[in-house]
Every structure is written in C-alpha cells, then in structure tokens.
Design goal:
The chain is mostly helical. The protein has helices at residues 2-9, 15-39, 46-64. The termini are far apart.
Length: 69
C-alpha cells in the first residue's frame, strides 16, 4: 500500500498511468479473492456451472414463450 501511495504522489504520474495502476489493483485484488475462494471451497466444477446455465436458459426461454409474456 505504501508503494501505491508513493506512486500517486509522483508529479510525473499521468492519467494513463493512474488508470493502469487502478486496473492492476483491480486485477490482483480479483486474483487474491479467487485464491481465497478456492482455498475455502467456494467454487463449482465446470460441469456444475454448465448444468446451472442450462437450467437458467431453460427457465428464461420458458418464461419468454409463456402466454403471460
């Protein structure tokens, strides 16, 4: 965090550099969260994901074709 504060205080820091820094922070925060989720068993397999998506699609498709729509 100190390194980030130092970078932001740099007068040579332009908007593009700030956007790149923010992107990197967001990206690495997401990776850290994903690693934590995996360590703590908060994940599903690809097969489970596919099944959930198929069920969601079927439900949505059914609702779009219902007479009440």
């Amino acid at each position: 965090m100190e390194k980030i504060k130092e970078l932001l205080k740099d007068p040579k820091m332009d908007n593009e550099s700030i956007y790149n820094l923010l992107y990197d922070l967001h990206f690495f925060a997401g990776l850290a969260e994903a690693e934590d989720d995996i360590r703590n068993g908060r994940y599903i397999t690809l097969e489970e994901f596919d099944k959930e998506m198929e069920e969601l699609y079927a439900k949505t498709f059914f609702n779009l074709n219902s007479k009440d729509f």
